[in-house]
Amino acid sequence: MAAMLCFTFASAATARTVRVVAFGDSLTAGYGIPRAAAFPAQLEVALRAKGLDVAVANAGVSGETATQGLARLDWSVPEGTDAVIVELGANDMLRGLDPAATRRALAEIVQRLKARGIAVLLAGMRAAPNLGRPYQETFDRIFPDLATTEGVLLYPFFLDGIAGDRTLNLPDGLHPNPDGVKRIVAGILPKAEELVAQAGKGK
């Protein structure tokens, strides 16, 4: 019994919070809504409600492209980070940037995180139909292809369930309102739980 108690106390003493960084653009940062209603904050609440000891940091920068994200990766994802949700690409698509450049930047972000022993969840984006079918098909392939090639988790479409829904977006039609963020969190939550589990194994 004494040995069991010692083991229990030792396990409790060595357990620590899993540190997750949500690394993205305005969709992560929480453009136009209170920071407490933004994706990282709502996701942390949802994960903790599942009994997980996690802290989710908001490393979102509005207007950022994948290449710009790559440029700030090292200081935005500090030492001690266990897992990262990569949510970039929407601004590349909105500006009609070359999908090859987006792919290269995202690939390097994922590779550099993996090299640091950080678990990765790639949040996918989809191109708007008005950009034309060739662009749309090329852009949309970036995320599943990278997830397969790099062996990381994938949530296929970050805006699944809210894109085009006026009741879940701000008046600009591009950014989720707090209810929209809640829908995003509900959709991505199973993958986020899987991410935390992966990160926990590496601790």
Provide a descriptive summary of the structure in words.
This protein has one domain: SGNH hydrolase (Rossmann fold), CATH 3.40.50. The protein has 9 helices and 5 strands. It has helices at 2-14, 26-29, 39-49, 66-71, 73-76, 90-94, 99-115, 133-150, 178-201, and strands at 18-24, 54-60, 83-87, 119-123, 153-155. Strand 4, helix 8 and strand 5 (153-155) form a beta-alpha-beta unit. Helix 3 crosses helix 9. It is globular. Residues 22-182 form the SGNH hydrolase-type esterase domain. This is Arylesterase.
Concise structural overview:
InterPro entries: Ester_Hydrolysis_Enzymes, Lipase_GDSL_AS, SGNH_hydro, SGNH_hydro_sf. About 40% of the residues are buried.
